[in-house]
Amino acid sequence: DAGSGECVATLSGHSSSVNSVAFSADGTRIVSGGDSTVKVWDAGSGECVATLSGHSNIVDSVAFSADGTRIGSGSNDKTVKVWDAVSGECVTTLSDHSKRVTSVAFSADGTRIVSGSVDKTVKVWDAGSGECVAILSGHSRWVKSVAFSADGTRIVSGSHDKTVKVWDAGSGECVATLSGHSSSVTS
Fold first, then answer.
1. Are 31 and 62 a contacting pair, CB within 8 Å?
2. Which one, of 37, 155, 69, 53, lies nearest residue 104 by Cα?
3. Interval 73-102 mean pLDDT
4. R_g over Cα of the chain
5. Per-residue model confidence (pLDDT) at position 148
6. Is 83 within 8 Å of 73 (Cβ atoms)?
7. Distance between CA atoms of 186 and 22, rounded to whole angstroms?
8. What's the rounded Cα separation, in Å, for the pair 85 and 65?
9. Are 103 and 145 in contact (CB under 8 A)?
10. Average pLDDT over residues 142-165
11. How many Cα atoms occupy the beta-carbon half-sphere of 168 within 13 Å?
């Protein structure tokens, strides 16, 4: 409970560490990733309503699309998977990273997905076709966190190189590098 700080539910079911969690925009569901699975939970009851299997290694990142119809997951198997949030079916597998995928996020309109990887790149994908539409290069170490701005015009990435980079989502150009962290930027 955000007001009282009281724990209202403990969701158990992954066989190893849980690496990422996210709420659906309407707050009715929670998605989690950890072992090689993605789990979908009823936020009210705490019941696991679906286990999405298909990754061959640890899931590092999960995200809901803003409309709640899709789930994205990034894995140590070097892929991003897009799942139908209702049926649990894998809609597409995005597999252009050369190393593990550490972070995924949807654009607010749900048309694009951004992923960050140990391969030091940020990739932008067409959420419908699964085509990689941009590769954003400039970090000198792992990319650990990515996000879209609310209006979809910017992408931000945090890296083990101790920087945050801001990218123009249309052109793919780095418009700012924010430095000053004394250690890795992980979120």
1. yes
2. 155
3. 96
4. 16
5. 97
6. yes
7. 16
8. 9
9. yes
10. 97
11. 6
Q: In the chain, count H helices and then E strands.
A: 0, 16
65 phi-psi bin (left φ>0, alpha ψ -120 to 50, beta other): beta
3-state helix, strand, coil in the chain (%, to 5): 0, 50, 50
Cα(82)–Cα(111) distance, integer angstroms: 12
How far is 166 from 181, CA to CA, in rounded Å? Answer: 15
Candidates 24, 34, 30, 28; CA nearest to 65 is 24
**Side chain identity, residue 130:** G
Report field, pTM of the whole predicted structure over 0.90:
yes
Q: Are 162 and 186 in contact (CB under 8 A)?
A: no
Mean pLDDT score of the chain: 96
106 strand-pairing partners: 113
- Tell me which residue has tokens 């009715």: 28
Query: What pLDDT is attached to residue 33?
Result: 97
> How many angstroms separate the Cα of 68 from the Cα of each of 28, 91, 110, 156?
10, 14, 9, 22
Q: Are 177 and 140 in contact (CB under 8 A)?
A: no
Over residues 155-166, the mean pLDDT reads 98
pLDDT digits (tens, 9 = 90+) for 88-114: 999 999 999 999 999 999 999 999 999
pLDDT confidence of residue 160:
97
